[in-house]
Amino acid sequence: MDTETARARLIVALDVPTVQEASGLFDHLGDSVSFYKVGLELVMDGGLAFVRTLKERGKKVFLDVKFLDIDTTVEKATANAARSGADFLTVHATDSKTLTAAARGAAGSELHVLGVTVLTSLNAQDLAEQGITADPSEMVVRRARLAAAAGCHGVIASGQEAALVRDAIPDRTFSIVTPGIRLPSDDVADQARVATPDSAIRDGATHIVVGRPITQAPDPKAAADTFVDRIAAAA
């Protein structure tokens, strides 16, 4: 895979508390990154306006807000997200009503709705606390099928389940976006189900999401280039 194609598959998570910090990272990373994630932390500090700034500067944006609410609210909030110019949007893939509402809200726009299957910070014990007896991999596949049936464009799933999702949904236009990505030498921090960029891409991930290993690196630009190189070599 050529470098530019690999670069388009790397999403850098701007999981920082202020737009000022996000802007500093954006300026430092420059052309090394073409796709950014804006999550709840940044949204609460003017991140929605920053989405528009990123789009004006030619970048793609993944708006990671994980909607879960009544149908009407999810549909209308998704329609508003589409108007922001975001390229990807997350909703929890816990039920068909939520997923279908989000798909309706995105209809006629360029926004891709992604169902969050099981957070990469959760393990089997965490699911048991929720009353779920299935293991994480089983729940990921079950919820991925719900998302596909509801008309969503893809899912969020850990690299440990990417191959299972791709086997269950062979359609290559169905995105598998994988967070919890670490190099072998990286600290896993609060992630429970991690994977390397190489293994995630080989197992069917269409995009990988990387936050702290890039944004907290001594040289974020060099770190981003390393991940791009790993994607290119794996594909």
Describe the fold and architecture:
By secondary structure, the protein is α/β, with parallel strands linked by helices. Helices cover 47% and strands 16% of the residues. It is built from 11 helices and 8 strands. It has an 8-stranded parallel beta barrel with strand order 1-2-3-4-5-6-7-8, surrounded by 6 helices. Helix 5 (96-106) links the parallel strand 4 (88-92) and strand 5. Helix 4 packs parallel to helix 5 (96-106). The longest helix has 17 residues, at 40-56. The radius of gyration is 17 Å and the shape is globular. The termini are close together. The relative contact order is 0.15.
Task: Write a brief structural summary.
The chain has 235 residues and is α/β, with parallel strands linked by helices. It has eleven helices and eight strands.
Question: How is the secondary structure organized here?
Answer:
Blueprint: H1 3-8, E1 10-13, H2 19-29, E2 35-39, H3 40-56, E3 60-67, H4 71-83, E4 88-92, H5 96-106, E5 112-116, H6 124-129, H7 136-149, E6 154-156, H8 162-168, E7 175-178, H9 197-202, E8 207-210, H10 212-215, H11 220-234
The percent of residues in helical segments reads 40-55%
How does the major sheet shape up? 8 strands, parallel, barrel
Give the count of helical stretches: 11
Q: Name the average pLDDT.
A: 94
Quaternary state reads single chain
Structural class by SSE content = alpha/beta
Rg calc: 17 Å
Please list the strands of the largest sheet in the order they lie side by side: 1-2-3-4-5-6-7-8
Low-confidence stretches: none
Instruction: Write the element-wise H/E pattern from the N-terminal end onward.
Output: HEHEHEHEHEHHEHEHEHH
The dominant shape is globular
| N-C termini distance | 6 Å
Please count the beta strands (DSSP E, at least 2 residues each).
8
Strand content: 15-25%
